[in-house]
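Worked example

This section walks through a single chain of length 180. The input is the sequence exactly as stored; nothing has been trimmed or padded.
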Amino acid sequence: MKHAISEKILIPQGISCHYNSGILKCSNNKSTMERKLNLPSTDVKLSSESIVFECKKGNKNNFKKIKSAIAHINNIFSGLNEKFVYKMEACNVHFPMTIKVDSKKLIINNFLGEKTPRVAVIIPNVDVEVKGTLLTLTSNDRNAAGQTAANIEKATKIKARDRRIYQDGIFITQKPGRKL
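Given that input, the structure is written out below as tokens.
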């Protein structure tokens, strides 16, 4: 069943937005973020204080895409006001590992006694700070910070060994908005 869908999101004070050919650019006096909106058969109308999504004949899939776009835009607005912070901790039972940041990569040496270092990709615009076994990831972009944290966890994933015994790795201990 097709219905007309109309959703509105308010733009916070101090943030300006521009929409052109499917790309929404939001900026404040410090930084700029952009997001590609893939919303077929949906009109995006931008005014100085709000963004309106309208779909003349929409179904539940159009509604889900619009709601997802609104969630991403709210993350952009939150990221422009303050940075998202992920906290991680390196745990080692067997061999002490060393962690260092080298430009766009996080290098993990001596993980489980391996001679070759493991490497995790750091996505642009994410700052990684290493203090001993604690890692702090900060970024205005929630998706970039989360993907970098996932890359680090994935780099220390243990395969073909018993996870009850080999509990080494780098794990997320705190995410934005909630504590684990």
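What to look for: The longest helix spans residues 60-81.
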